[in-house]
Here is the input.
Amino acid sequence: MSEQVPAREVMLGTRVQPYLINAFGRGVQFRDSGTTRVSDEIDRIFDSFTTDYLQAQSAYLASDLAGVDAARAAFQAATTQRVNLLSQQLTQSLVRLPGVLSKDKGMAAAPLQQFLTRRITHPRLPTSLLATLLNTSRNIPLSPGAPEAALYTLTATNAIESARVTTINASKFAISGVFRH
Here is the structure.
């Protein structure tokens, strides 16, 4: 009977020491209990936001065509309020991470404040979730079955997922001690 050869020997052609595999296995995908806990909390916050946002969008799309401007204004106000609530929830979650509140000399705001402003709440920065949601809602037709509505929903959900991933990555950098603004 032949001896079973470990997969790491077959793939690399030589035996690799386990401590090397463990050292190189700790990359972006590595999650310890602290990283998992923070990532899970961020996921819950964004899941709640996504549900609320899509419900508001559905109500907007189903609104009466006679009040297009009023419906759009109400939807944008609801979007702004919900994004601000998202920012507050993220602040409560991320404020416990190391270094996010410490301000270096010459900095106008702490890294957490800068991150949330640039990536979540700024109404005019193209990298901001709020700006993306507000800009695309200006062009959406009031018709639930319109192809433009499906495209808008896709754009909005992509923007939300991008903000989620960016926030999780920022939290990982904060946990590892290399958070930069």
Confidence is low (pLDDT under 50) at residues 5-13, 16-31. Residues 33-176 form one domain. The CA atoms of residues 124 and 154 lie 21 Å apart.
